[in-house]
Amino acid sequence: MKSFILDIWSMLKNRNVFIVSFTFFLVITGVFSWFPVLPLRLRELGANDVQVGLTYAFLGLAFTLFQVIGGLMSDRWGRKKIIVWPTYTFIIFYTLCGFAGDWKTLTLWMVIADSFSALQMPSFSAITAESVPEEKRGSAFGVIWFGLALGMTTGSALGALLLKYFSFNVLFYITAVIFAVCAVLRHVYLKETHMERATFSLKGLTGSISKAYLLFIGAGILFAITFNLTHWGPFVTLFASDIQKYNMMEIQMLFMVSGISAIVSSLIAGRLVDRFGALRLMGGGVIFHCIIVIIWTFFHAFWISVICFSLFRFCFQVAFISYEALLNKLCPQGQRGTLVGIAGSLNGALGASGPVIGSSLKVSYGPAAPFYGALGFAVASAVMVALVSRESQEKKEPVV
């Protein structure tokens, strides 16, 4: 226990890890004060349900495709610049969101904001990995996810409170102010970790792509499909409502429990990754996540659902932190931003097939079928991760 606390304290003393985690907490608190009820705002501005779905499709596409460009920019101009300058632009974009008078205008500004956010993502991953020793990356990403999870939970509670007294537009203005604070913090306190930069070379990039990396891309795509069938998809909520007959408040309580579990488990998961290795825990985490979801479908008691939601979110945190640590291990520093961006774009684009697959399974085989499908993809992902391990051993390249 003492060593665990000391490890977390050492991560918090790391300036880059602390600033990334703390500013993630702040911005996610702002964004999640309105994001869970964004569909209702779009409806208020004249969108029908099809148009709401179209908005989310555009947001997902923007956040996916621009990660490759962000990775290239990160390797060319450094991690810090590609984190800081887009943060300043969010002040403008979210202020304009507050002024939007129709759903199309709101969608436009949010899609642009998501595009700039996508540019940042490879740099956030790379600067975290490069700020700590390789054997401590699990703990570092655990601290980052702690900030994210705490922001999601805090933001949802803050939004519920503020919407009682203020209009929706005010939440966008508050978010813009938060980004202004975070832009200054990141500008002043983040330390650049990528000093040796070079112009983009396709030959250099392809030379950096190992067979282990390609296998891991495959594992990551299966990984994304799996979680789009469970944690990220609509099927858990639909099952809780249609089969277990939970009302909206009870479902919200379950996801609140899940959020609290994520806050606590992020730090523990990071420590486990450092101790037992990302390869072993990524495969195990994603499989046990699906098994717990399937077990949950056999019970209707609310207290059992509380336990299951806590456990499957813990397994999710273990798997995702392992994924981040292993991905950065397989990417050489000179091309890390680009390779992380490629992985993020492919996972997002191909992983988006999960809800389509899940809907087909649900219609054909019943409401629990998407979770069995998720288990199949999880096992396939774990097999691909095992192949990554074998390939690395054959090349005598150590992996975490």
CATH architectural category of the largest domain = Up-down Bundle
Radius of gyration: 20 Å
Q: Ends: how far apart? A: 23 Å
Record field, number of beta strands: 0
Structurally, the number of domains stands at: 2
Mean pLDDT: 88
CATH superfamily of the largest domain: MFS general substrate transporter like domains
CATH topology of the largest domain: Growth Hormone, Chain: A
Largest sheet: none
CATH class of the largest domain: Mainly Alpha
Class inferred from helices and paired strands: mainly alpha
Query: What is the overall number of helices?
Result: 17
**What's the order of the H and E elements?**
HHHHHHHHHHHHHHHHH
Low-confidence stretches: none
Relative strand content:
under 5%
Shape descriptor reads globular
Helix content: over 70%
